[in-house]
Specification:
Layout (H helix, E strand, L loop, with lengths): L6 H11 L4 H8 L3 H8 L7 H9 L5 H6 L16 E2 L6 E4 L10 E7 L15 E8 L1 E6 L2 E6 L3 E5 L4 E4 L6 E8 L14
Length: 194
């Protein structure tokens, strides 16, 4: 059984390593003090967009946040249990090769339960991203244009354009996506959908 990632402890470790109080981090991130406290105590699971705002204030990329401090030796094959879940507790985004040194792209196995949403706040970050829907449906909004994609359909766009992902269906949507640069937060240089 895979051990759950301790979001609260990791955030607290990064905040303290930068000499920031909860109040100062909250101010920089544009969130309330209680939000930082609740996340650090693991009393709430932040949405991907909320976590991105907090990490951008540090600054730390989402993939670096979940990868931890120890890069691994490059390997060619990854089993299901070796993928790092960088989702928010509702959305499951499993990153391939999260700890690989000098990774130049992000490949993510995404699962959106019915009604799941990357957040009302549109996402924007450097790079490009694309993916193929494996099963279910996903509604993607890119720069005001809305498309509903089903199994076998694909997308590819400039990630600097405002975008959002939402599952409007009644079954889970599964996507395999890639983005470059390897970002899952624009903080240092990365971010995927949120």
């Amino acid at each position: 059984m895979e051990e759950a990632f301790d979001v609260g402890a990791r955030l607290k470790q990064l905040r303290l390593s930068r000499g920031l109080s909860q109040r100062e981090l909250a101010k920089r991130a544009g969130v309330t003090n209680s939000t930082i406290s609740l996340v650090e105590q693991n009393n709430v699971s932040p949405s991907v967009s909320s976590l991105k705002k907090i990490l951008d204030a540090l600054p730390v990329s989402i993939s670096a946040f979940f990868a931890g401090d120890e890069p691994s030796q490059p390997q060619s094959f990854y089993r299901r249990g070796e993928l790092t879940d960088i989702g928010d507790g509702k959305l499951s985004w499993r990153l391939v090769a999260a700890r690989r040194p000098d990774r130049r792209m992000s490949i993510i196995h995404e699962h959106y339960p019915p009604g799941a949403d990357s957040g009302e706040e549109m996402l924007e970050h450097d790079g490009e991203e694309g993916g193929v829907v494996i099963s279910g449906q996903i509604e993607i909004t890119v720069n005001g244009e809305v498309g509903v994609l089903s199994a076998g359909d694909a997308y590819y766009f400039d990630s600097r354009l405002p975008h959002r992902f939402r599952n409007p269906g009644d079954e889970e949507c599964v996507i395999v996506s890639a983005s470059t640069p390897p970002t899952f937060s624009d903080a240092g240089q990365e971010m995927h959908h949120a």
